[in-house]
Design brief:
The radius of gyration is 26 Å and the shape is flat. β4 and β5 form a beta hairpin. Strands 10-17-16-12-14 form a 5-stranded mixed beta sheet, with no helix packed on it. A 4-stranded antiparallel beta sheet has the order 1-2-3-6, with no helix packed on it. 12% of the residues lie in helices and 56% in strands.
Length: 271
C-alpha cells in the first residue's frame, strides 16, 4: 500500500527585467505541493507574481522519475496574480524508495527574455527509511564565471556511485549538468559545477538545486541540495579596472613632473 505524503516547497526567484520596464522588478515565486495516492502522484506547481511588472508566456514543467512533463501556458500573469499548474503522474507497482522532484516555472518579460523560478523536494514510496544521503552548498556571488561546490555526505555502510544533477535558471549555464561521484562508506566528497551568467544584467537572485540519487538493490535513495546564486551588477572592463588606470595615470604624471624638474634644473645650470 502506498504511503500518503504532502510536500510543500516555497522559493522565490527574481530578476530585474530588461528593456522598457522603467526600473520595475519581474519576480515570480514558485510553490509546489505533491500528494501520493494508490496509483498516481498529483503535483501542483503554483506561480505568483510578486514583482511590479507583468510576466508573459508563463509555463510549468515537472522533473520526476528521470522524465520531464509540461503543463499548458498562461499568456500573461499580472502583478499579484497567481496560477496553479496541475500534473498527474502514474505510478509503477515496483517503484520504492526516496525520489526527487523539481518544479520549474518558465516566464518572460515584455521583451520575451526568459526567466525561471524553481522549487524542489523529495518524497518516499513504501517504507524505505532515510538518512542515507545528504548534501550542502554555500551561497555563491557570481560576476561572470565561478564554481559552485556541492558537498556530499553518505550514511550508507557500502560504497555508492551517486549521480548529481544540477537544475539552473535560464540565466545561468554550466557545461555539464550531471556528474557521477563515488562515495565511500560513511564518506564525504565534493563536486564542482562551473557556472556562467550568460546575460549582462546584474542584481538577480536565483535559487539553484542539485539532486543526488543512487539505487540500493532496486530501492531509490535521494537528497536535494538548495543554494542561492547572487549575480553582481554588471560593469564594463574600464570600470572594473579603473583603479589600475588611475594608478598608471598617477605614475605617468609623477614621471613627467620629475622629467620637467630635471629639465629645469639642467637648464639653469647651463645658463
Amino acid at each position: 500500500m502506498r504511503l500518503f505524503a504532502l510536500v510543500i516547497i516555497f522559493l522565490l526567484a527574481s530578476a530585474v527585467a530588461a528593456g522598457p520596464c522603467l526600473g520595475g522588478t519581474l519576480a515570480i515565486s514558485s510553490r509546489s505541493t505533491l500528494t501520493i495516492a494508490t496509483d498516481r502522484i498529483r503535483v501542483v506547481v503554483f506561480a505568483e507574481n510578486k514583482g511590479s511588472e507583468s510576466a508573459y508566456g508563463v509555463e510549468a514543467y515537472l522533473y520526476i522519475f528521470d522524465r520531464r512533463f509540461g503543463a499548458g501556458a498562461v499568456d500573461q500573469l499580472g502583478v499579484k496574480q497567481n496560477h496553479a499548474f496541475h500534473f498527474e503522474i502514474p505510478l509503477a507497482s515496483d517503484q520504492q524508495g526516496e525520489f526527487p522532484f523539481v518544479g520549474e516555472i518558465l516566464y518572460h518579460d515584455i521583451n520575451r527574455l526568459p526567466f525561471t523560478a524553481l522549487s524542489a523536494g523529495t518524497f518516499k514510496l513504501g517504507s524505505p527509511g532515510g538518512g542515507f544521503l545528504s548534501g550542502r552548498a554555500p551561497e555563491l556571488t557570481l560576476f561572470a564565471n565561478e564554481r559552485l561546490s556541492v558537498r556530499l555526505s553518505s550514511g550508507d555502510p557500502a560504497s555508492r556511485d551517486v549521480l548529481a544533477t544540477l537544475y539552473l535558471p535560464r540565466g545561468l549555464t554550466t557545461p555539464q549538468k550531471q556528474k557521477q561521484i563515488g562515495l565511500r562508506p560513511f564518506g564525504t566528497a565534493a563536486v564542482d559545477f562551473p557556472l556562467t551568467h550568460r546575460r549582462g544584467e546584474g542584481g538577480a537572485t536565483y535559487p539553484v538545486f542539485c539532486t543526488l540519487t543512487y539505487r540500493d538493490a532496486g530501492v531509490a535513495r535521494a537528497a536535494v541540495v538548495r543554494t542561492v546564486v547572487h549575480v553582481k551588477e554588471f560593469q564594463n572592463w574600464f570600470v572594473r579596472t579603473r583603479w589600475y588606470w588611475l594608478g598608471a595615470g598617477g605614475l605617468i604624471i609623477l614621471g613627467w613632473t620629475w622629467i620637467g624638474i630635471k629639465a629645469g634644473v639642467g637648464g639653469q645650470g647651463s645658463g
